[in-house]
């Protein structure tokens, strides 16, 4: 589904030039849920934006469904890749339904009635009610914003879904409900998912594989059990430090098959 080869991400500020990714390789297979973890500044969200085509790497190649991402264009990328941004990124001046309809209005030549109907289907698919359609983002809870943003990400029926900290800012009950929704959508829509998260419960409940970013590259890309066993200071700190007991509980609890 996604192939990344020899990727470099170099950024320049007035003070210095720094390299975030160096010769980074990553392959994502169709149908899996690959989670990306790493410390602050390792370029997790940058990598998602590059897969989506919003940022261009300094060097290297990213292919989505066999095609270089820079050749997809806005329409091609939107039909292949859906993106759930960390804070939802809804348009504040648009109603919930208008937000969901936006990609179809901009990128598809369809009758207005069909666009509205498709958006309503996705609205209800993510657990929102028809009565919510005309609500404004300012009137929505954090969980509703996440669900509306997810509906917008899926309205073009992309086979690949990118999630940036999908449960960040949600209370435990809302987080659990959202993870359950993601698991169901992954199964029912046969999605391939790439997720960035630091939340252990979300990570272990959804992931079929985990890719760890450190030292400017992917140091390990394997099942959760194998990743935890990999010898590296960041992995020891992230999984086996203060949160080690919880990680071991989750390792026993989840079968890692979505």
UniProtKB/TrEMBL annotation:
The keyword Membrane applies. InterPro entries: AAA+_ATPase, ABC_transporter-like_ATP-bd, ABC_transporter-like_CS, P-loop_NTPase. PROSITE patterns: ABC_TRANSPORTER_1, ABC_TRANSPORTER_2. Residues 2-240 form the ABC transporter domain. Keywords: ATP-binding, Cell membrane, Membrane, Nucleotide-binding, Transport. GO terms for molecular function: ATP binding; ATP hydrolysis activity. PANTHER family: PROTEIN TRIGALACTOSYLDIACYLGLYCEROL 3, CHLOROPLASTIC (PTHR43023:SF3). This is ATP-binding cassette domain-containing protein. It comes from Caenimonas koreensis DSM 17982.
């Amino acid at each position: 589904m996604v192939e990344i080869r020899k990727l470099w991400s170099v950024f320049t500020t007035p003070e210095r030039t720094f390299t975030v990714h160096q010769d980074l390789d990553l392959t994502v297979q169709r149908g899996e849920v690959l989670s990306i973890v790493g410390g602050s500044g390792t370029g997790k969200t940058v990598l998602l934006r590059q897969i989506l085509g919003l940022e261009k790497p300094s060097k290297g190649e990213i292919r989505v469904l066999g095609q270089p991402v820079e050749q997809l264009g806005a329409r091609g990328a939107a039909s292949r890749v859906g993106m759930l941004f960390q804070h939802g990124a809804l348009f504040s001046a648009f109603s919930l339904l208008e937000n969901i309809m936006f990609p179809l209005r901009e990128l598809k030549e369809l009758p207005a009635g069909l666009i509205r109907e498709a958006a309503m289907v996705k609205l209800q698919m993510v657990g929102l009610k028809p009565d919510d359609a005309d609500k404004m983002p300012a009137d929505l809870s954090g969980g509703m914003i996440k669900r509306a943003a997810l509906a917008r990400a899926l309205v073009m029926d992309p086979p690949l879904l990118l999630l940036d900290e999908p449960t960040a800012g949600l209370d435990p009950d809302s987080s659990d409900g959202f993870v359950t929704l993601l698991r169901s959508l992954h199964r029912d829509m046969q999605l391939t998912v790439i997720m960035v998260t630091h939340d252990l419960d979300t990570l272990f409940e959804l992931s079929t594989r985990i890719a760890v970013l450190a030292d400017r590259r992917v140091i390990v890309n394997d099942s959760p059990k194998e990743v935890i066993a990999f010898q590296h200071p960041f992995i020891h700190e992230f999984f086996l430090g203060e949160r080690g007991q919880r990680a071991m509980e989750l390792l026993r609890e989840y079968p890692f098959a979505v």
